[in-house]
Amino acid sequence: MAPGFFKVLVVAAALAVAGVASARTAPALGDIQQADLPPEARQTLKLIERGGPFPYRRDGIVFQNREGRLPYRDRGCYREYTVPTPGERDRGARRIISSCDGPRYYTGDHYRSFQRIRP
């Protein structure tokens, strides 16, 4: 094996490890102002602040962040809440994810993308 190939392989491995580490700490997220959320999401935020009662049985369950689209937190830190979608018969795709350390996130596409909710 040529020495140059080995050097490229080492650099590629280091970049891959760095990419995994940075993905666990700070994925790129957009922001959304609370006032720009759908009215149902603002109502869900009020319910979260009050501690319920929540309209869906699964509201408040642990969100596992399996895809790593939110900043890394210990298991159990994230909780998910349904944002009702007018016209939907089930829970729909919209959620608010609440973090144990404060930030809240909105997804309108069932976890494919998130926006950090700003006051």
Q: Could you give a short description of this structure?
A:
The protein is an alpha+beta fold. The protein has two helices and six strands, in the order H-E-H-E-E-E-E-E.
SSE topology sketch:
Layout: H1 3-25, E1 30-33, H2 39-50, E2 61-62, E3 78-82, E4 95-99, E5 104-107, E6 115-118
Parallel strand pairs: 1-6
Antiparallel strand pairs: 2-3, 3-4, 4-5, 5-6
Description:
The protein is 29% helix and 20% strand. With 119 residues, it is α+β, with helices and mostly antiparallel strands. The protein has one domain (3-118): Nuclear Transport Factor 2, Chain: A (Roll). The chain has a six-stranded mixed beta sheet, with helices on one face. It is globular. Keywords: Hydrolase, Nuclease, Signal.
Q: Name the average pLDDT.
A: 86
Low-confidence residue ranges: 8-23
Percent helix among the residues?
25-40%
Distance separating the two termini: 57 Å
Major sheet summary line: 6 strands, mixed
H/E element order? HEHEEEEE
What's the CATH superfamily, by name?
Microbial ribonucleases
Shape-level CATH architecture: Roll
Class computed from helices, strands and strand pairing: alpha+beta
The oligomeric state is single chain
Q: CATH class, anyone?
A: Alpha Beta
The counted number of beta strands is 6
Q: What is the CATH third-level topology name?
A: Nuclear Transport Factor 2, Chain: A
Shape: globular
Q: Please state the CA-atom Rg, rounded to the nearest Å.
A: 19 Å
InterPro entries: N1-like, Ribonuclease/ribotoxin
GO molecular function: hydrolase activity; RNA binding; RNA endonuclease activity
Signal peptide: 1-23
Pfam families: Ribonuclease (PF00545)
